[in-house]
Fold this sequence. Notes:
The complex is a heterodimer of chains A (about 325) and B (about 1050).
Chain A: E1 14-24, E2 27-38, H1 41-55, E3 58-66, H2 84-93, E4 96-98, E5 103-111, E6 114-117, E7 121-122, E8 127-129, E9 135-139, E10 144-157, E11 169-171, E12 175-176, E13 179-189, E14 194-203, H3 209-228, H4 236-239, H5 250-261, H6 264-268, H7 279-287, H8 293-298, H9 301-306, H10 312-327
Antiparallel strand pairs in A: 1-2, 2-14, 3-10, 3-11, 4-8, 5-7, 5-10, 6-9, 10-12, 13-14
Chain B: H1 9-28, E1 33-34, E2 40-51, H2 58-63, E3 69-80, E4 88-99, E5 107-109, E6 112-116, E7 118-122, E8 125-132, E9 138-145, E10 151-156, E11 162-166, E12 171-173, H3 174-180, H4 185-191, H5 195-204, H6 211-223, H7 233-247, H8 251-262, H9 275-289, E13 304-307, H10 309-338, H11 344-347, H12 351-363, E14 367-369, H13 375-382, E15 384-386, H14 400-403, E16 427-429, E17 435-436, E18 442-448, E19 457-461, E20 471-472, E21 488-493, E22 496-501, E23 507-509, H15 518-521, H16 531-541, E24 555-556, H17 560-567, E25 571-572, E26 577-582, E27 586-591, E28 594-599, E29 604-605, E30 611-612, E31 615-616, E32 623-624, E33 629-632, E34 636-637, E35 640-641, E36 645-646, E37 649-651, E38 663-666, H18 668-671, E39 677-688, E40 693-694, E41 720-721, E42 726-728, E43 730-733, H19 743-752, E44 759-761, E45 764-765, E46 772-781, E47 791-802, E48 809-811, E49 817-824, E50 840-842, H20 854-868, E51 872-873, H21 885-900, E52 914-915, E53 930-933, E54 936-939, H22 944-947, H23 977-986, H24 989-1001, H25 1003-1015, H26 1027-1038, ...
Parallel strand pairs in B: 7-15, 20-23, 24-51, 37-50, 38-49
Antiparallel strand pairs in B: 1-2, 2-3, 3-4, 5-6, 6-14, 7-13, 8-9, 9-10, 10-11, 11-12, 15-16, 17-18, 18-19, 18-23, 20-21, 21-22, 25-33, 26-27, 26-32, 27-28, 29-30, 31-33, 34-35, 36-54, 37-53, 38-50, 39-47, 40-43, 41-46, 42-45, 43-44, 46-47, 48-49, 48-54, 52-53, 55-56
Function (chain B): DNA-dependent RNA polymerase catalyzes the transcription of DNA into RNA using the four ribonucleoside triphosphates as substrates.
Organism (chain B): Helianthus annuus
Family (chain B): Belongs to the RNA polymerase beta chain family.
Amino acid sequence: MVREKITVSTRTLQWKCVESAADSKRLLYGRFILSPLMKGQADTIGIAMRRALLGEIEGTCITRAKSEKISHEYATIMGIQESVHEILMNLKEIVLRSNLYGTCEASICVRGPGYVTAQDIILPPYVEIVDNTQHIASLTEPIELVIGLQIEKNRGYLIKAPNTFQDGSYPIDPVFMPVRNANHSIHSYENGNKEILFLEIWTNGSLTPKEALHEASRNLIDLLIPFLHTKEENLSLEDNQHIVPLPPFTFYDKLAKLTKNKKKMALKSIFIDQSELPPRIYNCLKRSNIYTLLDLLNNSQEDLMKMEHFRIEDVKQILGILEKNFVIDLPKNKF
Amino acid sequence: MSTIPGFNQIQFEGFCRFIDQGLAEELSKFPKIEDTNQEIDFEFFLERYQLVEPLIKERDAVYESLTYSSELYVSARLIWKNDRRRYIQEQTILIGKIPIMTSLGAFIVNGIYRIVINQILQSPGIYYQSELNDNGISVYTGTIISDWGGRLELEIDRKARIWVRVSRQQKLSILVLLSAMGLNIREILENVCYPELFLSFLNDKKKIGSKENAILEFYQQFACVEGDPVFSESLSKDLQKKFFQQRCELGGIGRRNMNRRLNLDIPQNNTFLLPRDILAAADRLIRIKFGMGTLDDMNHLQNKRIRSVADLLQEQFGLALVRLENMARGNIYAALKHNWTPTPQNLVNSTPLTDTYKVFFRLHPLSQVLDRTNPLTQIVHGRKLSYLGPGGLTARTATFPIRDIHPSHYGRICPIDTSEGINVGLIGSLAIHARIGRWGSLESPFYQISERSKGAQMLYLSPGRDEYYMVAAGNSLALNQGIQEEQVVPARYRQEFLTIAWEQVQLRSIFAFQYFSIGASLIPFIEHNDANRALMSSNMQRQAVPLSQSEKCIVGTGLEGQAALDSGALAIAEHEGKIFYTDTDKILLSGNGDTLRIPLVMYQRSNKNTCMHQKPQVRRGKCIKKGQILAYGAATVGGELALGKNVLVAYMPWEGYNFEDAVLISERLVYEDIYTSFHIRKYEIQINQGPERVTNEIPHLEVHLLRNLDKNGIVMLGSWVETGDILVGKLTPQMVKESSYAPEDRLLRTILGMRVYTSKETCLKLPIGGRGRVIDVRWVQSSKTDETEKTESIRVYILQKREIKVGDKVAGRHGNKGIISKILPRQDMPYLQDGRPVDMVFNPLGVPSRMNVGQIFESSLGLAGDLLDRHYRIAPFDERYEQEASRKLVFSELYEASKQTANPWIFEPESPGKSRIFDGRTGDPFEQPVIIGKPYILKLIHQVDDKIHGRSSGRYSRLTQQPLKGRAKKGGQRVGEMEVWALEGFGVAYILQEMLTYKSDHIRARQEVLGTIIFGGRIPTPEDAPESFRLFVRELRSLALELNHFLVSEKTFQLNRKEA
Lengths: 335, 1060
């Protein structure tokens, strides 16, 4: 894959853009090298960068369009050559460039006849259009085309069910993928001890290959930052292994629900031996002077845990039994 | 080179024949009607009949659910012959409406496109065959087949006695038949060539004496009468009418065939079976028995005839005229009796004819709903041939030889395009160039090669004739006149394949596709495919869903253009002119001084729920020629059929996700809308306009479900609806009986204080799986019901956009089909050496055993075409030009692509067509080079959304109390015998019990489960037998068999009877 000999200093790791081309406003190409790398390193970085470039880079897209006059996506508007659906498809294609967080609004307000292109979109200052000539619609009559747009910056793609919005706006399934294609190749030299990594990047113009490279590496570094912390953090992930598998609030939550459902006096009259507890738990509870359900409910989960021989599984079991028998504690009638 | 005939032409020609000849022929049979006193004559003028142009447009007929038909007017004359009044009254009268064929070759009946497919039948006539009987002795038979399919068999046995079989019953002596037909012994013996055989026969059977006896015996056989019927004149007449006239009518074709086979010269208009025929047939049978003369091949196309639309419609017209005649007779009689003055018009009305056609189009098996999945389906449907239907075969009894390909099919019936399953070989497809000849025979064109005329002369030959010519098979051409070896070509002669010198060839085929149907001729590299897979492909192309954005195929056969053109999916300029207005839904064209408004199809539903849509392709102000394409339809691009998409494919295993033909796809196909299609569903509700009312106030239901209704109670246009939403709110008044509710239901109502309603909600709800955008709402008045009970219906059309998803079926054009098993992000897909991730991963094991190598050629050539930006149109059998022509072409194109794009990996000489590719997850190259390519892949109509189904609760069958089956009825999955074994094998007794009782037909147990769910407690174990077993016991009882069980008490030995 190497076509020209490139002299690279063998000392420090360096990157360089060796080739860049712009086939059109919406197709940019760049080729980068990184060297010198030790044997095997190029592959490690290359595949990670390729995947990061393809999967991790954010893009800006129109996610939603709204127009007053349209009855539905498949309707036709007098004086417009395209159907609404085709206009939405054209809007989906429009490439934007922004440093936006979250969403923002934009609009199109054009009077016909004439062609509506991307440059007719009225955008907030921090969003700009990459290719002004992108076609949106062609108006054949002197009519007004007003479309409100919503712009979002995100990653990957979205396919939305339109049902969540009943306000007459139409979702455009956006594709936030500015990198069209990425490739890496490795060239080794010095008897295969050193390697040069080549990265090829094609983008859709909303960011240059160089920017894509920056962003991809930043995203990659962000993902690796946790490992840089010297001390392990107390993530719930690790806690769970030896402390409590139950989220701390559920027990109370459920009990509260139960208490609401039933009157307290009812609880008082129900003894725990009615609730088919396993003997061991039953004995544990008995030893701690818990006789009725009300007594049981007065203890929090931590209290229960403090009892002798009481294990976390038992709490779960109690919960299960309570829920099963308590809600439906009517006498079992034979049919 | 001749052009390919229009694909709908078969249908058009048929219909024209009916209008031009059929009508006149049947009208000429209409008799002069006289009343009993011979006072009045009523007759039609044959030469004056008119069809009036339909009052409505084709499109309106579909929209309003009407029939697209034209009125038939006939001049009629009423002659008064009695003395008081003696005059002639003439009038042009309306006798009914005839549905008219539309430009699709179909009819519109009640708003539904219907097509009448051609039937292929055994031609009436006589056929000699030899069969081995039970003792292994060959028996010679001559079968006389009548016009409607009835059979009469002559059979000669070992002792050279001739027997007759009428409809496979006991055999009779031929003398009985001949006597019954009115000949006496002397006449018989005088008119046969071998009277001694008949004489010997006579000695055996003494009892044939008189004609009466013969008729009696024959009648007994024919009508299966028990006992001894007494001879009477009426019996003789009955036999004449039922047997000799109805069952033995040969028809025009039959008479012609009989004359030809038996060397007779009976005039053409004598269409019944005559004694002379039988005598000649018997003579011929004797000769064949003794080795003189040839046997017939029943399956030869020569002995088949096509019953086309023309014949079927003509037959119905004849039937209608008989009814009309009876009506006229009745009315004349009534008029004279009640003394009203008849006029020609009030003697007849339009109901007999109109009703006959209505019934025909609705109920006749050969009148089918036009399948409109995609444009290809439409044209292919009209070119079908069926052996089934009235007068034909039945699918269950048809034998293997009938279904098989016959050498005479060459160029007439496609050898590969037929349906799979029970109808295999019985429903075929016409070859591209075939046409229907005069006597219902299928003709195929050939070029005549003769020394004298240099220019090739084309002639159409019927099935019997081309066998006697040397026909060059066309799979190898004598291109180089100089070389001796190439002067020898393969040829067909008398159903054999020979290799003969080029000079001896008399005919050659005109076109490489000549022997294929349209479906098969759209397969590139078909010659590299196994016929079974080509069959699947031609069927699957008809199931392809039009995609939201179509794409031309890179590798095609060149027939795509005409297929799209003839399908009617495109909007075509009817005359030249200038466009002065275009819009999304119409084009206005001015030319010849007037303006033509061409309405375009906008998101319309086809009967397979696919979406039909036309996109205008002309700009305002452009001048248009006649026949120019104005708008592309669904699944057409650039005037060519475009059913699928060219996608990058790799043939390799991938983590088992392409096991058993499953297909792995990239997310790109989802988010870039590569395989996104639109589906429009129609939901309809009948409204009984008396008591029922449509409203948006339905107290039974939650407000949330009613959110889309407007103030009239109908769903709003453009609203998004989900499963369970109300489309039309309707209330039906109801007499409420408190006791009609289930006890627990009543209890719940009391507890929760629910109101008791005086009306029932009978809303139209969106069924399971339905979701989408409401694009149209129509009120339709149904015209067919009586005036007293006017019913209306509301139709709601919902458009759904479906991306490709796991479970959808995709297929190539070589019978390579599969189900999507997983959708991977693009970075995880294997990628090529330039970083491009592939779109689909097929299983390489799907190729060798299926023998559809065409897909490999196609994908490689597709890749080359994609890189070079070229499109290839390849006629089949390019191997006739040189050895391995396909491979050479593909490799040379790949090589060029690799050179032009400077990508050496596209063509690697040590593994041409294959390339090293990388795993997207690890970046490692795969062990072996992998075939990559760009084939054309279709998305088929079998989609999970239409099939996925589960049942929690639902209805039960009335009788067995088992859950219903089928998704439409929200049915359950059958736990059959083998499933029970599986559960037994795992020892899961309780699950098995649950399957057989609570979840199925144990009524009491399943009610108890309901109670237990509400009130808690253990689910009781059912003790007695489930309902279907009880049903079985009762069925046995109805056969007087008692099945019961008793409990015997150990102490008292008392029997305790248990009711099963």
